[in-house]
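2 proteins. here.
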Amino acid sequence: MARKKVKLEGMTEAEQEIHDNITRGVSDLFKDHADKLSELLSESDGNKVTVRFSAKIDTSQSAPIVVVRLSFSNATRDSRTYTSEDPKQPGLPMEDTTGGED
């Protein structure tokens, strides 16, 4: 299923892409660990577990890199890395940038 992109007002295209990568990382990580989280919730006192997400944004290169991390119960850590398109690299003349299908 395709993710619905939320356009946030006042953001540049690069900021929007970083936002989208962070959102995708949180969603992917949560889905990948949902079973373990449910198991921990059922086993924990008071049915509570703290889940932490963090994002590291590296713009030292021309294409921003976003690393999203998940941690919970001091035992599970996971991360995803996403590289945005290089905003300084022009698209090919025949490249479809509309996102539509043929």
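next one coming up
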Amino acid sequence: MPDRPRRWEVVGIVPSGPYLSRSLGNSYTVSGTLSPDSTGTYYYAGDYDGHDLFRRNDSAYEIWRDTLNNWWIISVAAGDVTAGCWKRIVATIAGAYTAVAPYTGTASVAIDT
């Protein structure tokens, strides 16, 4: 992916603080011992329901914001948790994600610098 300047825009405030959105040019790395294996690099791929959407380089998984519950989710497709997922119940995308059955392991998401 070509180098692009990192641009951020604060688009809202939630009870736990501001969340960053519109992070064009940024990527995230998912790591951990996960089943199924969703590790890898995720790139900005547009938005879903008004929030950033990140897609793994092979398009097998996505990181997206569940606006109903205000969670970040890793799953096979934005809006789809029927096969399981990992969820993060805070406003920031980076950090630890808890598995929802049948998925297992703790996913760690870190911003690439």
